[in-house]
Amino acid sequence: MSTTVEIVEVGPRDGLQNERRPLDVDTRVQLIKRLIGQGARRIEAVSFVRPDRVPQMGGAEEVMAGVPQMPGVSYIGLVLNRRGAERAVRTACTEVNIVVPVTDEFSRRNQNLSVAEMLDHAAAASQVARGAGLRVSVTLAVAFGCPFSGPVATDEVARVVQRAVEIEPDEIAFADTIGVGVPRQVRALAALAAGDDRVRKLRFHFHNTRNTGYANAVAAAHLDPAAGAVPGGVIALDASVGGFGGCPFAPSATGNIATEDLAYVLRGEKVPVADPGLPDIDGLARVGSWLGEQLKSVPQGMLARAGDFGPRVRAVDEEGAEK
């Protein structure tokens, strides 16, 4: 059995939250519509955080009021606490993504709370979301390395995972918030799920800060479901159109892996992709270029500049001979 990848488009949230130029509500809604038009079906659309802390994410309710309601399209709202979840459930969000750092130093610097206290907030937020019938993801931030306390040991992440699964989320996500991870860590973190029935689904969030994001994504896509580290045989991978994004609370945390570049490598690796399948790669690259124009910034994804290649290449059989 092969691992199937589900692509989660985070451009409208993580792609915008660290950009200097905030986009208005109408432009953010237009971005989401364009992404749906190119095949995006699971979209992290907004963040219910304080607009004075992250002004780029202001107007979350207005954005959600403007997005299309379509069968098969799900919208994720990022939250940090009960208050964020209470805002999310009053909108068209179908999921909440609750973020919990794995190091006390990162957590205290950004939320003035310990990891244990953030887990308590996560439990309260989950209760609100569940009561409204929304799915719940818990993302463990700085799971690969912390900008303040340095490398993060797998055992340290494991302790937070054990608390996080008590919340009974639908999904546990490991985030390389500052882009320091390597494939060995992907495999080590995935192994934390092996044999634990409380982990229903795994998700990874990679940044390409040090040019390892795509290597990490390939490592996640090639995890062996037979080893028990891929619950249900499906793994979710976050990506941002155009490679935009970063964490405003983590120094030097540059862009996410680009959705179009991820789709290109998954196609080349012949990795199964969850329904409805691979998005339109050239179309996504055009959306990335359009977004760059709105932000007055250059896309970090390579296909936005180079374009797709596969359709112009003759099919080659397994022995390397032209068909």
From TrEMBL:
UniProt superkingdom: Bacteria
UniProt xrefs under Gene3D superfamilies: Aldolase class I (3.20.20.70)
Domain Pyruvate carboxyltransferase, chain residue ranges per copy: 5-266
Gene Ontology terms, MF aspect: hydroxymethylglutaryl-CoA lyase activity; metal ion binding
PROSITE patterns documented for this protein: PYR_CT
An individual GO BP term: L-leucine catabolic process
Pfam families: HMGL-like
Ribonucleoprotein found in the keyword field: no
Keywords, sorted A to Z: Lyase, Metal-binding
Keyword Metal-binding carried by entry: yes
UniProt family annotation: Belongs to the HMG-CoA lyase family.
PANTHER family given in the database record: HYDROXYMETHYLGLUTARYL-COA LYASE
Protein name, UniProt field: Hydroxymethylglutaryl-CoA lyase
Species, as recorded: Streptomyces shenzhenensis
